[in-house]
Structure formats: C-alpha cells, structure tokens
Amino acid sequence: MSSTVRPLFCALLVVALACGDETSPLENAPTSIAEADGNGQAAPIGTALADPLRVVVRDAQGDPVAGVDVTWTVTGGGGSLSASVQPTAADGISAVNLTLGSVAGQQMVTAAVAGLDGSPVTFTATASGPSAGTIALVKEVPILPHYGIHDTFVRDGLAFVFAWDEGVYIFDVGNGVAGGSPANPVEVSKTVTALGVNSPSPSVHNGWWFHAPDGEKRYLFVGEEGPGTVGTRSSGDLHVLDVSNLAAPVEVATYHHPDVDLEHVGIHNFWMDEPNEILYAAYYNGGVVAFDVSGTLTGDLSNRVIDQIRPGGAGNTYTWGVMLGPNGDLYASDMWSGFWQLGTSGGDMSVLAGGNNVPDRFGSDLWIHPDGAVAYTGTWGGGSRMTGNQIKVWGLDGSGAPTLVRSVTVAGVSTISDLEVSADGTWMLITTEYGDASGLYLYALADPANPVLLDQYIVSTPSSGLHTGTTAAINGRSYVFAARDPDAPALMIFDVTDVLP
Asked: Cα separation of 195 and 283, whole Å?
C-alpha cells in the first residue's frame, strides 16, 4: 500500500469509529413492553372494539423504540385481530384492532416480545349478548379431528354427540345429572362402538335415544357410516348401547345388513315409532328397514327385522333419511330417486306415491310439518347433478302423496344437509355446507308452504359449514345444536329464542 493511501485509510477509520460512538445501538435497545391503552372495553358479540389495543416498547432510558415486532394473539373467548405481528412506530407504539368473537363473555388478547420486561401484556374485553333478534352462539365444544362431529340427538336435557372415531359423547346440557347447561355442557361419558363388518373405523354417525312406552329409557341406537359411493355401495352397521347407566354405556346388540347386488350396504339416518316400538332405519343402497325393538335387545338383531323396502328399486335407491308423518305414513328421502310416501302396517312397508321427482339434484334430509300437509327436503351437491342449494317444499294431499310446491334457493352454499321443523310448526332450521354463506339458517313458517328467512349465522371459515342441526327447548329457551364440519370440528350451541316468531 502506498504512503499516500495509508493515512487516508486511517483517517476514514477514525471517522467511522467516531460516528459509531455517537449512535451506539446499545443506547436504543428495547428492554420493556407495557400497556398503553385499550384495555377493558366492551361491545356486542361479533363487533369491533371502538379503540385499538396499544402497547409501548421502551429502552433502558425510558425512550420509545421503533421497529420492534410485537406478536399479538387471541388467547381466550374467540375474536380476531387486524394483525398477528405489528411493529412499533416512531413513538414506540404497536396497535391492533380486535373484533370480538361470537361467544358472550370475557375475551383475552396478549402482546409479546421475547426477552422484554413486562412481556406478555394481557388485554381483556367483554362481548355482550345475545342481542335481541339475532342468532347467538353460546358455546363451542371442540371435537378431536378424527374426522370430527357428525350429528347430535338432544332430549331431556341430554345431548348425545356422535363424533366419528371418537365415539358417542353424552353431555348434560340441562338434565341435572351433572349440572350442565347449553352454555356449559358437562361430559357424562364417552363410548366407542365396535367396528362394523366393512368399516375401517368406528365411523359413529347418528343415533336415537329410545323412550319406550312403559317409560324405560334404556337403549341408544347408533348408526355407523362407513366408506361408500353415492348410488351404488355403502357400509356401516347398527349398534345398540344400553344407557341405563348414562355414565357407563354398554354395547349390547348389532345388526349387519347383508350385501345387495353384490355391494356392501350401510346405514344412515333413523326414525322411531316409539308407541309401537319400531325402529325405521334408512340404508343408502339398501332402502328402509323396519326393526321390532320391543323388550330386551341383545346379540344379532337379524331376527328383529320386520320388513325392508328399496323404494326406487335396484340401481335407483340410495336412501338418506326416513320419517313418520302425523297421519301414520312413512316418508323417505332418497339421494338418487327423490321423495317417497310409504305405507306401513305394523312395520310392513309398501310404496304409495312419489319418487323420481328431484331429477336435477341429489336428495338429502327430510322433515314433515306437524300439520301433515307440507313436507321439506334438502339437496346435496356433487357428482353428476347440480349444486344442492335448494329446499324442496312439498304439498301432501289428502292421501299424503307429495307434490312439489316450490324450491327455495339458498345462495352461496352447495349443500343443504339437514333440516328440522319446530314441534309447534312455527319455524324451521336448515344447516348448509360448502360455500361462503355456509352455516345455520332459520325460517318462519306462518305459511308452512312459504318459508320466510328469519336470520342466518355464517360459519364457512375455517370449516366447510354445518353438517347437521337439531333443536331443543331447555329452561324456557330455544336452542339449536349443530355439528361444524371436519376442517374445524365442534359442537356449536346456539340460542335462537330472540329470533323466533
């Protein structure tokens, strides 16, 4: 290096060191984080707080520090934040906005920077509700994601939750046996049924808690939905649990449907004629099977089969659900062949009317209005037919034969998988899946043939919507118990009292 260059290099080095001394990074290093403001706010459920949540980051001299990433997290009660990481500004402030979740009560958020004194900072907010005139979510019960929850049967303040590979949960939601309520379900027991003949897992799908005419409440019928292909094959057996001791159910009986047309047959939904002690079971490619369930049930129930029918015949039967109407006729909704009226005589079944009447969509669930003059069926999206975004409204003439009155289209969904009419016939719920508007819908039935939308609750993110729903009156209020889809499986309990006509 030349002699003229060396002094210049040394001079630059001295200047650089001098500048470094003036702006040493240690002088502005963050050491603490603290609440600035925004704590303790309140707002209605599902709304944004009026003011942001703010923290301040300072150095050892108490001066604000800019550019520090603060991690914000919802830690309780639900809700969503405008950002999960928000750096501090020139004044040392990191701020986010909180939109409250759908559950009334306290909600919590933390703001954290690893290694700083005061971290994490905790904020609380209060979500008020339910608001008059809106569907209010009062509780979510997460279900382990082994596929998740599929259906719920609620009666006498007990909720029987059918949760696929997790089995059957029994919750006290107002019965008193364990001190539970809709807002605070208390688990009484959980039972995993045996594997069906052709099922790789328990695949617990649905059930019915049988109240016998003599007042006995011993048996819970459980359906298993195994692998299948719409229109051809399915799998899944009937299981019977003795629930005399709700805290320790015992499986006592089963039924495996023989193959039909060289294909496996699987059970789906139930309906019971309790006064006559007959269980009607819908089988996808097996039609409808009637069982005598009187007396003591044990072992193989093959000798309890009264009758069976495939309403659409071979290649045209894939029955979703079955229900008794107030006139004593049996109705079946078939994915492939539509809505059928069946005759019964002591369990013996025959086709009376209907069928091959929903060619544009696959059929799903059904419900008969208490007046016996109107019925409703859902539609399922997929396969070779159009999307399942319609409620089919049927008039039942003097003989009970179904005639399509109208189709009610639900925008933003592709499946209406479940529906139920209240016991007094004044309103109906439907559960919808697969679309931005998926969730729970309530309809007024002042004119049963013309459902009018009352309210909706969207649950399309992060799940695909709600698969099933059922209503129950508990302590003078009306609730809907719904099954959120496998992407985020949970039992969702809604208070709908303030929405109803």
From this structure: 18
Q: Which helix (H) or strand (E) holds 147?
A: none
Instruction: List Cα–Cα distances, 18 to 15, 180, 246, 260, in angstroms.
Output: 5, 71, 80, 91
Could you report the per-residue pLDDT of 40-64, keeping only the tens digit for each?
A: 888 876 778 989 999 999 999 999 9
Question: HSE on the CB side for 402, CA within 13 Å?
Answer: 32
State in Å, rounded, how far the first CA of the chain is from the last one: 94
| CA atoms in the 13 A half-sphere facing the CB of 236 | 26
26 band by pLDDT with thresholds 50, 70 and 90: low
Tell me the whole-structure pTM to 2 decimals. Answer: 0.75
Cα separation, 342 vs 340, in Å, equals: 6
* Cα within 13 Å of Cα(3), Cβ side: 0
User: For domain 28-128, is the CATH number 2.60.40.10?
Assistant: yes
Tokens coding 26: 């240690």
Q: Is the dihedral of CA 33, 101, 151, 314 positive or negative?
A: negative
Angle at 109 between CA 108 and CA 112, to 5 degrees: 145
On whether the CB atoms of residues 235 and 227 are closer than 8 A, the answer is yes
Task: Give 227: exposed, middle or buried? Use CB within 10 Å, 0-12, 13-18, 19+.
Answer: middle
Residues 6+ away with beta carbon under 8 Å from 359: 338, 385
What would the two tokens of residue 307 be?
A: 């009758």
The secondary element (H helix, E strand) that includes residue 280 is strand 278-283
| Rounded Cα distance, 190 and 149, in Å | 13
Q: Using alpha carbons, select from 176, 139, 179 the residue that is nearest to residue 161.
A: 139
Compute the half-sphere exposure of residue 314: CA atoms within 13 Å on the CB side of its CA: 5
Mean pLDDT of the chain: 91
Assigned architecture for domain 136-499: 7 Propeller (2.130)
Q: How far apart are CA 430 and CA 357, in angstroms?
A: 21
Q: What is the pLDDT of residue 103?
A: 62
Q: Where are the domains of the chain?
A: 28-128, 136-499
How confident is residue 22, by pLDDT bands cut at 50, 70 and 90? Answer: very low
What residues contact residue 358 under an 8 Å CB cut-off, 6+ apart? Answer: 338, 339, 377, 379, 392
